[in-house]
# Entry
Amino acid sequence: MAAAVTLAARGVPVTLFESAQVPGGRARRIVSQGIELDNGQHILIGAYGELYRLLRTVGVPDNALLRVPLEIRYAREFSFRRLSLPGALGLLGGLFTARGIAFKERLAAVRFIVRLRRSGFQLSHDVTVSALLSNAGQSGRIGHFLWRPLCVSALNTPPELASANVFLAVLRDTLGGEAEASDLLLPRVDLSALFPEPAARFVKQHGGEVRLRETIRNLADLRSSYASVIVAVGPHQLRALLAEAPQYSYQPIYTCYLQYAEDVRLPFPMIGMADGLVQWVFDRGRLMGEHGRLACVISAQGDHQQLSLEEVAARCHRELASAFSGIGSPQWSRVIAEKRATVSASPGAKKMPQFDGVLFAGDYTDRQYPPTLEAAVRSGVRAALKIAQ
# Structure
């Protein structure tokens, strides 16, 4: 959709083929047993400049996102909030005043960030995030409550496997940037309404065509019919198009929706859960008016992959009931398991597919950024600009 919008805005006629009945890929609305849900609970950050530029291009209103200064709260023990100070002072002040960790660890975290800023947030030799944190003395409670959860959330890869340089690129653009870059932006509309649907309307209004429920199986035939082709499918779908598609390893994302009584509310729209299956829980009532509906997110590989979806839902409820008193029993639950949600963001893991005369887009094609919505948008814009030049 990012590629199509970029070309349409430049007056280039495009035809978009989408095998599903709705566009959007991993970020779209689905219907599960008659209930409309997002196929995942995405977190956006202020550094997603290309995504926000395209949202404005296609006419998405500002109130479609709830912007809050970076604040990480846990159900127990730890909280961190970037202070309203200019530049790096806001981050450093937030680390100094973080609750739930000893002053010695807070001071060490400040020194860690200062060293990263001096190095340009880049290592000459890539290592895993776990090795980075261990070498920097950041494996204690600060690692448990802040660095490791940030790694898993941003890279969807366990710190033991994740690329430190990819993680540092995220820290550079968020915690190392201006205060607004680290803001959390939480969708207040479903993911289809946030970008894919207004993007499709924009393409049509600018002379393009959007063909849903139409699968492409032969790239050679497509190349003979169009001046240029951009392939923007998931990496696991490349084998249907390329005889020698690269091999990738994948990481899952599980989202568990639990509908409680309408008066059930969390004290903050997004709460961390550090010691069980659930990593983050979102209050969809506070965000989207879906009162009493909580969304639990479990990113990256883990023991939960051995459980049935019903067992995952039961575990999520037990952890919520333990953390938040008086929550009651859920009226219903749905678990959406994206088993190949992203490629593993490990050192040297990204490989570019090749096919003569074809450009490729997707979060897995961005060599510097983790598999996020911003990486997907950047890749689409980059491919489109090569055509429009």
